[in-house]
């Protein structure tokens, strides 16, 4: 399903013009008069290589009565709820208006990504309006001209960056088959299993190892569901793969795993979970595919119950990242236990395609952090803020937290295991990404921090200032403290006329006497004789 974009804003800012440009057709009526659009309109469009579902809305009016404008506003509210990403458009020629500010306050309550567009920015007169748009609080505005097609590259980059953490629902086509890859070591019984499932000898089988060389697709229908089974070549250890043909077969098998939805790992019951089986299972987990274990040749097992319990315990111990994956014991030669394979595959596929509501995720996050709070790193506790699912197949989640880079690996494993247990997601690979808040661009070192101001001990300080600071740094503690707290003395100015010193409020403190001596002068300008300080005769 394509990304849904809701184009909103006050009347007559160019929403329908942008809608028509992204759709590629003149579907919406465009006129200079405000209020032409009344209903919200849906259409498929694109920008660059991104497929979009566009929603054109009526101009937002701040009314809540029974009028037509109020009903138009309700349609805009529904578009905000339905859209994945909001394009908030304002007129760069007119600048920010009071209605723009009211609408901006409404958009902050949506908790959805908002891209601010400054439309009609093709002229010089619009520069002031683009600058005013920063005050709306949605970051750097994207200056565009919907009528002339200017700024579309910047709009594409903004949509691409804002839609990284948006979950886009994947809707399967009605006839789209479930792709199942059968993998394992050579001579594990993969081709025999497929032949038994489809009921015919479609693939070559035999006691020789390595009969299958390339991946072969077989279309099949199981209880009304289209299935595409992919038989792959047996994969040996990498050190033993020397021939070019076998290398190509291994590459083809890896490609089949990449394009599969569910992977069935077939193992010999006597040598299950050896090094090669573990590497194959780990490859499936890294590719993010659902996994089902199969223990083949089960008709030869004398104690099946105890053996199955041991293998299940071994799978959980050696592959904890895939704990809970379905385990099926069968015999493709005799057909014993084969009927349990497809229900396990469909269950694994359903778990792999699960979608968890954001509200349930945040309720779970609150309980998980209360039960086991995040650790304190360097004396500061890490705070979890918000969690959402961004993708399915495999389930992918993003957690926003303060100081995300400091969150320990063991706590991430705790959250992953708790998530798997709480929402019943056994066996399927889970992806949990930890992200921090947006960085302050005006902080030191940011993109807009500007040149660094002079600091006393900075290397860029003048040489004289640095020399003075170095001299002060060598003073004892008490002397340095007295030097810093010392009150500045008044300046001494020589050869000042008597008439100037007599003015009220004069800043002159001392003036030269007739015989070269210094005589004290009061702030009012009167000369102190200083007779009482003369020595007695």
Automatic annotation (TrEMBL):
Domain of life, source organism: Bacteria
Coiled coil start-end: none
Compositional bias annotation for Basic residues: 525-537
GO BP annotation list: ribosome biogenesis
Spans through the membrane: none
Binding site for GTP 2: 184-191, 231-235
Disordered: annotated segments: 435-537
Entry's Gene Ontology molecular function annotations: GTP binding
Gene3D superfamilies per record: 3.30.300.20, P-loop containing nucleotide triphosphate hydrolases (3.40.50.300)
NCBIfam families: GTPase_EngA, small_GTP
Subunit structure: Associates with the 50S ribosomal subunit.
Keyword Repeat found: yes
Domain EngA-type G: 3-167, 178-353
Protein name as it appears in the record: GTPase Der
Biased composition (Low complexity): 495-512
Residues bound to GTP 1: 9-16, 56-60, 119-122
Keywords: GTP-binding, Nucleotide-binding, Repeat, Ribosome biogenesis
SUPFAM superfamilies: P-loop containing nucleoside triphosphate hydrolases
Family, as annotated: Belongs to the TRAFAC class TrmE-Era-EngA-EngB-Septin-like GTPase superfamily. EngA (Der) GTPase family.
Skewed-composition ranges (Basic and acidic residues): 450-460, 467-484
Function text: GTPase that plays an essential role in the late steps of ribosome biogenesis.
Gene that this sequence comes from: der
InterPro entries according to UniProt: G_ENGA (IPR031166), GTP-bd (IPR006073), GTPase_Der (IPR016484), KH_dom-like (IPR032859), KH_dom-like_a/b (IPR015946), P-loop_NTPase (IPR027417), Small_GTP-bd (IPR005225)
Pfam families named among the record's database cross-references: KH_dom-like, MMR_HSR1
């Amino acid at each position: 399903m394509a990304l849904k974009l809701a184009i909103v804003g006050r009347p007559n800012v160019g929403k329908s013009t942008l809608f028509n440009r992204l759709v590629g057709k003149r579907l919406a009526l465009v006129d200079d008069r405000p209020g032409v659009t009344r209903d919200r309109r849906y259409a498929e469009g694109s920008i660059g290589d991104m497929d979009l579902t566009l929603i054109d809305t009526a101009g937002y009016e701040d009314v809540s009565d029974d009028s037509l404008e109020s009903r138009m506003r309700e349609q805009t509210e529904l578009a905000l709820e339905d859209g994945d990403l909001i394009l908030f458009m304002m007129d760069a020629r007119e600048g920010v208006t009071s209605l723009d500010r009211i609408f901006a306050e409404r958009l902050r309550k949506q908790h959805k990504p908002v891209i601010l567009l400054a439309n009609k920015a093709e002229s010089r007169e619009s520069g002031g309006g683009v600058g005013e748009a920063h005050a709306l609080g949605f970051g750097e505005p994207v200056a565009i001209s919907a009528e002339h097609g200017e700024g579309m590259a910047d709009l594409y980059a903004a949509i691409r960056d804002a839609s990284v953490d948006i979950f886009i629902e994947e809707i399967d086509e009605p006839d789209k088959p479930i792709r199942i890859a059968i993998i394992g070591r050579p001579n594990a019984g993969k081709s025999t299993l497929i032949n038994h499932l489809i009921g015919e000898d479609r693939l070559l089988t035999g006691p020789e190892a390595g009969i299958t060389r390339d991946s072969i697709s077989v279309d099949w229908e199981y209880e009304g569901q289209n299935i595409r089974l992919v038989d792959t070549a047996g994969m040996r250890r990498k050190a033993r793969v020397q021939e070019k043909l076998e290398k190509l077969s291994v590459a083809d098998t890896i490609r089949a795993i990449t394009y599969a939805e569910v992977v069935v790992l077939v193992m010999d019951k006597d040598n299950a979970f050896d090094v090669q089986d573990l590497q194959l299972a780990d490859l499936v987990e890294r590719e993010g595919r659902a996994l089902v274990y199969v223990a083949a040749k089960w008709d030869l097992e004398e104690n099946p119950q105890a053996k199955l319990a041991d293998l299940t315990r071994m799978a959980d111990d050696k592959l904890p990242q895939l704990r809970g994956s379905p385990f099926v014991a069968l015999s493709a030669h005799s057909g014993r236990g084969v009927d349990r394979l497809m229900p396990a595959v469909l269950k694994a596929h359903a778990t792999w395609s699960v979608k968890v509501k954001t509200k349930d995720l945040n309720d779970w996050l609150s309980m998980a952090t209360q039960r086991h709070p995040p650790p304190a790193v360097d004396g500061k506790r890490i705070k979890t803020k918000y969690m959402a699912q961004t993708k399915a197949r495999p389930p992918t989640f993003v957690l926003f937290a303060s100081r995300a880079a400091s969150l320990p690996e063991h706590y991430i494993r705790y959250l992953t295991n708790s998530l798997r247990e709480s929402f019943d997601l056994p066996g399927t690979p889970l992806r949990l990404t930890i992200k921090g808040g947006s960085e302050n661009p005006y902080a030191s070192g940011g993109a807009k921090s500007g040149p660094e101001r002079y600091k006393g001990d900075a290397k860029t300080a003048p040489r004289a200032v640095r020399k003075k600071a170095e001299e002060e740094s060598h003073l004892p503690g008490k002397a340095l403290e007295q030097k810093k707290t010392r009150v500045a003395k008044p300046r001494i100015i020589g050869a000042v006329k008597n008439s100037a010193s007599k003015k009220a409020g004069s800043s002159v403190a001392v003036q030269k006497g007739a015989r070269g001596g210094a005589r004290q002068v009061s702030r009012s300008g009167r000369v102190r004789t200083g007779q009482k300080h003369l020595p007695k005769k």
